[in-house]
């Protein structure tokens, strides 16, 4: 509107900014349309399409003589962590099948904590031993440890693109759950390596890292749960019987975001915080709002997450062709480092997935095993490295995006190469591998999950109506008692204050199976034909339409 | 997550940034809660609450020794125009009662175009004559003309807070419609005064301004309509019978925003563009998507607009206590200038509202007059000056937020004072005035509108079922023929390509009154009690729940 008049006074970069926005929004739209058209394809998913589109348009931009490349193409870690990541992780928590997640808590924690340590050790060792042969001599031990952490950070966003919560619920909850915990662990380790004098390797340093880790885990979770409960309480208390749709939705969005940035401010793991905030909000807050707000939040959160995801992959693609980091890189050296890191990542992940699965299986019933096929998929689908690795690499090896040191530039370029290769190559064959292993829902070996619909009952009314077999399966599981205790506690102490399923007077009327069936057939009638689930995670988040 | 680790490497300002985000999100939440609690109050609305909260917390921040005041409190014109304004204006177009708007097109254009010229002339003259007496000697004629424009820019956002589309549809469409056109006119004039050598006052300059204006009006509208139609076509063509909720919603959001930033890039009036894009999207695109996407978009757009509005007022409040501009200001001078500008604004607006209303009434039926009471409200509710005025003032009188020239600093401070005073004082007495004039819906004199529900029929299925009287009233109106012609054209040429009401096969089944009634009672049963409309505009946008 007025900007153009203002632009005259502003520097040119501000107008460039609008230009870049137009480009990015157009590319996002292209990604969505292409994603739709290529939905049937086995080798493409939204992530690979976005990265490829980013690479191509970035290359075109440079070819057309764009000299302001850096400002447009450069990956901005702040935009990533402050604006793009929160909606994705929040929506993951908001739409995750909570029962599945908590039932697999033990293996998830093992993969996510012990796994990072194992993987970091393998990658650090591999890099430390081989890199000097490629002429890298100035990296410190802290740099190598940081490298190990950087390549142990799985890409939770990419995982969401490949695994489908409804088709492979066990795998989804294991791999995605690992991703969230992995992130927290990665942060602690990365910070520890930056803060402590790791050359010492004293017991004190280790104890410090351990205590820090436990504190981070507990404090981050508590903050997320706290903010989530506050939102439930606020909406229940203030808006009881006097709903205002916009305010409800606004309070949910703002409090979700508040949990994330408060964790940032308190130097906690904001991913863990916002993930648990999402879980609590879907368990309590979501049930305290009007029907329209429920539908709106489900879809709006999923859409925000979807846009942010696509944006991130586009961004990685655009940054991939940004030239300064490639110019300073010697290609033979880089190729060697690239191979070492890639192989180390593969080996480092195998080194913990298979042993940990074996340990975890000892606590699981015979019908509940993580089979060898599952283990292969878990190993494979956690191999992709993504935006988090890039952001960490920039943080360790550049000063505010500027890489003076040629060795550091080489490391960043190599990181980018691993990210691009792993996402494009590993990512595009993951779907075929999962299908060929017969791991899509109908063929899933081992009755290891209680059925997709079952998991909804913490979040959605439908579940309480599922019939015998899956309930039995659930109760047979080791976590059955814990779950019963939690339900009792929830009903007696939590729900009176914070609402939750059954809070809304309207819903109570409909607690019987009959009325549910009526509603279900209703919604089937009213909602146009839905395409088979696309590989996007957000799709899985769609609740049964509650009219 | 990782930011804290990164923060060590970054400058302190980046961590400040997170800190500021936490503060602003918390304040937004406070505004929403207070807005809810004070909903019954006649003197408070969300705008005044947000401004007061901004002022108080800004003052507290400074009192607590915040030395980084500028970065936190300073009003950033880019954030305002690129991120906050688009959702507000888009939602206004998306939820505006189209029939009412187009029926009042003639007076709206007169107020919005001729009105700005009259008001600018009055304010420029008043300032030019009196300011030298307050010791202001260095302002050029271009500065004075810019001042005239700045204080002729009505605050469309604030208007939305005070008038309710359902209670006072005629007033709402006149004042808000004027606001949108006013903005376009203000931009052209402001730019003309910056670009052309206005001291010449030659016929060529005038012709240039006129041509530029017509071009801007037509091109901006065409761009908005074009992007809106493209979105309808894309969704209808690609997703026909194969809906994916997230993609649909994402395409709507992204294309709406694209229209705005494309207009920015092409130096058009992006407000006009995004407004018409919103109208077209609600007429076509919205009907081409699934039920859940319809509910989601209605509420999500309204919520985004609601948050952006609250943010803007908070922002103005925070900027209000930012000290640098007050320090350079001599209080006696500023008080004189403040009074002159305030009186000139009052007089300048009166000078066109009453004559233009008289002219417009000549074309209107006797039951369709803009009564003198209406005219008073139109005059009064357009008196508030808001964020647009502040942004323009910064643009004219500062170099990237820095005011070296003390006269310029005084002008900016005075602008801020007028904005704060007009929003707080005029804004808080507007609701009482409207109520005491008996202009809320049930008492509205003159059958000048065909009823709230009638206007929905372009956007929502309900209307085709409203009964006799209002249809008669509509057809009796002068624009009846134009409207019939448009409907015929729309049915024959537009809807086959772009969809629109009745496009979805499911809706077609339900075109009978009976099934509609069933659905309506259904939704009444399912949706919890809705509070009486709050003064927020977004509330008015709520569609009848389509299950």
TrEMBL record, chains A, B:
Pfam families: Na_H_Exchanger
Main subcellular localisation: membrane
Record-given protein name: Na+/H+ antiporter
Location within or outside the cell: Membrane
Top-level lineage group: Eukaryota
InterPro entries: Cation/H_exchanger_CPA1, Cation/H_exchanger_TM, NaH_exchanger
Species per Swiss-Prot/TrEMBL record: Klebsormidium nitens
Taxonomic lineage of the native organism: Eukaryota, Viridiplantae, Streptophyta, Klebsormidiophyceae, Klebsormidiales
Record carries keyword Membrane: yes
Tagged with keyword Ligase: no
Chain ranges passing through the membrane: 16-37, 49-67, 79-96, 108-129, 141-163, 170-193, 213-235, 247-263, 269-287, 299-318, 338-356, 377-397, 409-429
GO cellular component: plasma membrane
């Amino acid at each position: 509107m007025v900007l153009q008049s203002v632009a005259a006074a502003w520097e040119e970069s501000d107008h460039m900014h609008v230009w870049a926005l137009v480009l990015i929004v157009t590319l996002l739209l292209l990604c969505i349309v292409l994603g739709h058209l290529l939905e049937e394809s086995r080798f493409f998913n939204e992530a690979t399409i976005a990265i490829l589109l980013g690479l191509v348009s970035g290359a075109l931009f440079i070819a057309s003589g764009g000299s302001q490349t850096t400002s447009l193409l450069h990956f901005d870690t702040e935009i990533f962590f402050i604006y793009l990541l929160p909606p994705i992780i929040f929506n993951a928590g908001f739409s995750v099948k909570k029962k599945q997640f908590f039932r697999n808590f033990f293996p998830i924690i093992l993969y996510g904590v012990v796994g990072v340590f194992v993987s970091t050790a393998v990658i650090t060792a591999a890099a430390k031993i081989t890199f000097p042969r490629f002429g890298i001599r100035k990296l410190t031990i802290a740099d190598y440890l940081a490298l190990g952490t950087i390549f142990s950070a799985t890409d939770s966003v990419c995982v969401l693109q490949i695994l489908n919560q409804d088709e492979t619920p066990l795998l989804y909850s294991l791999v995605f759950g690992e991703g969230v915990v992995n992130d927290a662990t990665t942060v602690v380790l990365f910070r520890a390596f930056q803060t402590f004098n790791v050359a010492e390797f004293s017991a004190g340093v280790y104890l410090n890292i351990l205590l820090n880790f436990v504190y981070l885990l507990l404090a981050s979770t508590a903050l997320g749960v706290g903010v989530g409960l506050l939102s439930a309480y606020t909406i229940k208390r203030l808006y009881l019987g006097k709903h205002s749709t916009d305010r409800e939705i606004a309070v949910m969005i703002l409090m979700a975001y508040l949990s994330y940035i408060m964790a940032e401010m308190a130097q906690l793991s904001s991913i863990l915080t916002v993930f648990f905030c999402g879980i609590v909000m879907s368990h309590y807050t979501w049930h305290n709002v009007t029907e329209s707000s429920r539908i709106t939040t489900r879809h709006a959160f999923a859409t925000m997450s979807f846009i942010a995801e696509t944006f991130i992959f586009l961004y990685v693609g655009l940054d991939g062709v940004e030239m300064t980091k490639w110019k300073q890189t010697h290609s033979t050296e880089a190729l060697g480092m690239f191979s070492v890191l890639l192989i180390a990542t593969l080996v480092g992940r195998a080194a913990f997935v298979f042993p940990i699965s074996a340990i975890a299986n000892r606590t699981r019933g015979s019908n509940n095993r993580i089979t060898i096929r599952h283990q292969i998929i878990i190993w494979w689908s956690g191999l992709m490295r993504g935006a988090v690795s890039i952001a960490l690499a920039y943080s360790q090896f550049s000063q505010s995006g500027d890489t003076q040191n040629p060795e550091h530039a080489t490391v960043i370029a190599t990181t980018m190469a691993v990210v691009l290769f792993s996402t494009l190559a590993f990512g595009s064959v993951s779907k075929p591998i999962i299908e060929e292993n017969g791991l899509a829902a109908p063929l899933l070996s081992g009755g290891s999950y209680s059925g997709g619909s079952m998991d909804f009952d913490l979040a959605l009314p439908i579940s309480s109506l599922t019939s015998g077999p899956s309930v039995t399966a659930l109760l047979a599981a080791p976590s059955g008692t814990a779950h019963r205790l939690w339900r009792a506690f929830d009903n007696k102490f939590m729900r009176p204050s914070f609402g939750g399923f059954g809070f809304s007077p309207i819903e109570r009327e409909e607690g019987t199976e009959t009325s549910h069936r009526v509603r279900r057939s209703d919604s089937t009638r009213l909602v146009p034909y839905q395409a088979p689930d696309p590989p996007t995670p957000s799709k899985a988040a769609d609740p049964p339409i509650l009219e």
